[in-house]
């Protein structure tokens, strides 16, 4: 190899080395490589149609509230001229409206922001099912056991299902909350919640 060839190779080597360095330093998502488009596609969340279960629950709850309110008597009193119907009917209509707007937002791709340790988690059907069972048990037992007992079991059961492991402390707090709501309705609002087996004691 002549001196001229060596010199020419030495001139070409720095550019090749520079090109290799540029390739190594270039980010994976550089334009032209398709990395940015792929990352953006992966980062873009899809529609979380599981939220439609929540929408359906709210809609059914709203309908039940409206139907139950419509069955109330039309009696009024001097201190309550509008009667008991309007407030639950308004609440039922609002529940149904929230369900409709929530469903529309879900279908259009809306979603909540994932934060904290539970980011990316999906709807936990087991927890939702257990919570529904606790509420149904309360509805079935409230007339027999009374609100203080059934409400305390409702609060305690919901706390356990949601992860509380301080069973006795949670039960004590649930009993206090049940008594507070019972006397709060009786004294503050003049409404008597079912006393059940504790009739004559409370």
Structure in words:
The chain is mainly α and 202 residues long. The chain folds into two domains: 2-118, no CATH class; 125-198, no CATH class. The protein has seven helices and no strands. It has helices at 3-25, 35-43, 51-70, 86-107, 125-145, 147-161, 167-189. Helix 5 (125-145) packs antiparallel against helix 6 and helix 6 (147-161) packs across helix 7. The chain is flat and about 55 Å long. Mean pLDDT is 74; it is low at 29-33 and 39-44.
What does this entry show, briefly?
The protein is mostly helical. The protein has helices at about 5-25, 35-45, 50-70, 85-105, 125-145, 145-160, 165-190.
Give the key terms.
202 residues, mainly alpha, 2 domains, 66% helix, flat
Number of E-state strands: 0
From the spread of the alpha carbons, the general shape counts as flat
Helical amount: 55-70%
Radius of gyration: 32 Å
Uncertain runs are 29-33, 39-44
Number of helices: 7
Biggest sheet character:
none
Q: How would you classify the quaternary structure?
A: single chain
- The structural class is mainly alpha
Give the end-to-end Cα distance, rounded to a whole number of Å: 109 Å
Structurally, the number of domains stands at 2
Mean pLDDT equals 74
Helix and strand pattern:
HHHHHHH
Strand content: under 5%
């Amino acid at each position: 190899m002549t001196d001229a060839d060596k010199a020419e190779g030495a001139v070409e080597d720095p550019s090749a080395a520079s090109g290799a360095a540029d390739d190594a330093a270039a980010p994976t998502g550089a334009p032209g490589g398709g990395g940015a488009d792929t990352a953006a596609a992966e980062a873009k969340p899809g529609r979380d149609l599981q939220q439609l279960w929540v929408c359906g629950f709210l809609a059914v709850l709203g309908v039940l509230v409206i139907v139950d309110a419509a069955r109330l008597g039309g009696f009024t009193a001097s201190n309550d001229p509008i009667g008991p119907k309007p407030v639950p009917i308004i609440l039922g209509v609002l529940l149904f409206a929230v369900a409709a707007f929530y469903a529309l937002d879900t279908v259009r791709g809306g979603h909540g922001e994932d934060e904290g340790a539970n980011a990316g988690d999906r709807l936990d059907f087991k927890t939702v099912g257990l919570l529904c069972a606790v509420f149904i048990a309360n509805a079935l037992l409230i007339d027999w056991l009374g609100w203080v007992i059934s409400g305390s079991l409702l609060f305690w059961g919901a706390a356990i299902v949601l992860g509380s492991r301080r069973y006795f402390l949670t039960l004590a707090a649930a009993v206090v909350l049940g008594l507070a709501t019972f006397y709060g309705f009786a004294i503050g609002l003049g409404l008597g919640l079912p006393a059940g087996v504790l009739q004559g004691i409370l």
